[in-house]
Design goal:
With 147 residues, this protein is α+β, with helices and mostly antiparallel strands. It has two helices and nine strands. The strands form two sheets. Strands 1, 2, 5, 8 and 9 form a five-stranded mixed sheet that branches. Strands 4-3-6-7 form a four-stranded antiparallel sheet. It is elongated and about 90 Å long. The chain starts with a helix and ends with a strand.
Length: 147
């Protein structure tokens, strides 16, 4: 092997190493986790989805299921500030309790669901919710959603 071939091979290896280093350092560090409790008027949100929108770097949304008010993203949220919004689950169909039939269904009650997520929290631009995640750490985010 000639000296030129060795230099070229070493240069190629160095270029690959620098490329890998640049790509890993651009991510801003290892992801962190966010866990917590979401309540509506003091009561746990039965079911829903909490979404984190990272404001820097790769902006892919991170979702976590809310079950009985609790959620955990595990270690999937990139470090930095993320906007948050919350999507309530679809309501369960009402159980048949009588008062109607196949042709004329029972009228639905006009009572408002006390566990309904207020509309402003269902959009990242209007929710006012943010969290700052640090590399490799778990952040607790508890929020009571009120109108």
């Amino acid at each position: 092997m000639t000296t030129f071939s060795r230099v070229r091979r070493a240069g190629s290896a160095l270029l690959v190493c620098l490329s890998v280093l640049a790509l890993t350092s651009c991510s801003g560090g290892s992801p962190g986790a966010v866990k917590g409790k979401i309540t509506v008027n003091g009561k746990p949100l039965t079911r829903g989805l909490i979404t984190f929108l990272p404001q820097s770097g790769k902006n892919d949304p991170i979702n976590a299921a809310i079950i009985d008010g609790e959620f955990d993203t595990l270690m999937t949220v990139p470090p930095g500030v993320s906007k948050i919004y919350i999507i309530p689950s679809s309501s369960k169909p009402e159980e048949a309790t009588g008062g109607g039939n196949d042709l004329v269904p029972k009228p639905k009650s006009a009572a408002k669901d006390p566990n309904a997520v207020p509309t402003k929290y269902q959009n990242a631009d209007t929710s006012g919710l943010t969290v700052t995640v640090k590399s490799g750490e778990t952040v607790t985010f508890d929020k009571d959603l009120t109108p």
